[in-house]
Write a structure and sequence with these properties.
- The termini are far apart.
- By secondary structure, this protein is α/β, with parallel strands linked by helices.
- The longest helix has 21 residues, at 419-439.
- It has 2 domains: 2-200, P-loop containing nucleotide triphosphate hydrolases (Rossmann fold); 254-439, 2-Layer Sandwich (Nucleotidyltransferase, domain 5), CATH 3.30.420.
- It is globular and about 75 Å long.
- The protein is built from 14 helices and 19 strands.
- 31% of the residues lie in helices and 23% in strands.
- A hairpin with a 2-residue loop joins strand 13 and strand 14.
């Protein structure tokens, strides 16, 4: 049982006297270093069903109850990949473990619990991380970071911790060597000693999981054996043995991008002034617009740059292209750039042309499956600039089909999340670039007329 201190009087008018409450949580041995930690930042990589959500929710409760600050009142957050996932995974746990504490108030629609000392623990989804801008937190738990937009933490969540030196805990299972893998590592890839690191594969928790499941009438060894026989070796290594090396489940380009890394094709790729640059766009309406910058050097495709933004007008992207010191061959846009907007009656193609963008090519309409196959054929020829293209690279690694746990199969359509923007732009590049290169004479001769003219 976890003993907590809570105030007698919920009104935060003056420093409170404390009383003890016991909640029905017994930490597993592997989690005790986390509860006793002194480090501000923690990274817990644990196998499926270990109980990392339960452990971190209880840690939030204890720290919130022990926070004696009066003004402003303490604030804590659990952040899932989506708001729905946060609710499905953590909400019942939060209500269950706070229920024994007198004076608890819950809000079912906004998913928060107010504690007697005026502290609040609230659930959020990283799919709408802008909602957290301007807030402050004393501590956050970020669940499954690999499934979240890599910009959510550094751009929005991390600043919310600055007012009160709040802590951050990252929990999840691997999904390849992405930003979750890099968390808590220095520039040399070594573990940062100022972080708490817990790596908990299934082989390291056998005794405690056997005892826990036996009490519930479940044979844990049989469960693991069934999982191993049902899942592919890569899936089992990722989900139960915490392997960052295993290919991401359902990833369309996972193995190809892993090959690119092992072949040292993700490295420094400088701009070659003797070769013109193509851009390939995915135009977002209510979400992000992504742009790849590519050069054809012989049969190689050099991805020298990548840009992505949201919430800005088309002129912003034209200005971004213009400010780069590149000589452009042309710009590849998706087929829907020709659709007319109801508000203006203009197509986005017409708007971009009016802004000075020249040399536009509309990618041929195609099935997503055909575009994915086209990308698969060009990635072995691609070289990626590791620094300028990092977000696009991460997107290609994580672009995936969702795995249906009930049907034990992959769903036919790609997951639409932050990773899909760069992946879609790459589809348009793959479906168009070779054809355009073949159609043009003296391909590497710089254009004499500007491709962009912006006032």
């Amino acid at each position: 049982m976890l003993t907590l201190e809570a105030p007698d009087d919920p009104a935060p008018a003056e420093p409170f006297q404390t009383q003890r409450h016991v909640i029905p949580y017994k930490p597993r041995p592997q989690f005790k270093p986390y509860h006793k930690r002194t480090e501000r930042f923690a990274k817990i990589v644990a196998h499926r069903r270990f109980g990392k959500t339960v452990g971190t929710i209880n840690d939030l409760i204890r720290r919130a109850m022990q926070n004696e600050r009066i003004d402003p009142p303490p604030r804590y957050a659990y952040i899932g990949p989506t708001f729905t996932q946060a609710k499905d995974v953590a909400w019942q746990y939060l209500k269950h473990y706070t229920a024994p504490i007198p004076g608890i108030r819950t809000n079912e629609s906004e998913l928060y619990v107010d504690l007697p000392n005026a502290a609040r623990i609230r659930l959020y989804g990283a799919d709408n991380y802008d909602r957290m801008r301007g807030l402050y937190f004393d501590g956050v738990v970020i669940d499954e970071p690999a499934q979240q937009d890599p910009r959510a933490y550094p751009e929005v969540i991390r600043p919310t911790l600055s007012d009160h030196a709040g802590f951050a805990t990252f929990i999840g299972t691997p999904a390849g060597r992405n930003w979750f893998y890099d968390l808590g590592r220095n520039e040399l890839g070594e573990l940062d000693a100022s972080w708490l690191h817990l790596m908990l594969p299934a082989t390291s928790t056998l005794d405690v999981m056997r005892a826990d499941r036996q009490a519930k009438g479940v044979d844990w060894d049989a469960e693991l054996a069934n999982a191993k026989s049902t899942l592919s070796p890569e899936q089992y290594a990722q989900e139960f043995e915490c392997s960052f090396e295993a290919a991401i489940v359902g990833a369309y380009y996972g193995r190809l991008m892993a090959d690119a890394e092992s072949d040292d094709r993700i490295t420094g790729v400088p701009y070659d002034p003797a070769t013109r640059v193509w851009t390939a766009w995915d135009l977002g309406i209510s979400d992000a617009t992504a742009i790849w910058f590519a050069q054809m050097v012989g049969r190689e495709i050099h991805l020298i740059d990548y840009y992505e933004a949201s919430g800005v007008d088309l002129g912003h992207y034209v200005r971004e292209i213009t400010r780069r010191d590149y000589v452009y061959a042309g710009h590849i846009l998706p087929h829907d750039a020709q659709a007319r907007e109801l508000g203006t009656g203009k197509t986005r193609l017409e708007v971009l042309e009016s802004l000075g963008l020249r040399g536009i090519t509309i990618a041929a309409q195609h099935r997503v499956e055909d575009g994915i196959n086209a990308v698969r054929t060009i990635i072995p020829r691609c070289w990626f600039d590791q620094r300028k293209c990092i977000r696009g690279i991460d997107g290609l690694k994580l672009y995936r089909s969702e795995y249906d746990d009930k049907l034990q199969t992959l769903r036919p359509k790609p997951v639409h999340d932050w990773a899909s923007h760069g992946a879609d732009a790459m589809r348009y590049l793959a479906m168009t670039l070779d054809r355009k290169a073949a159609d043009m004479n003296d391909f590497n001769r710089p254009l004499r007329m500007p491709v962009i003219g912006v006032a």
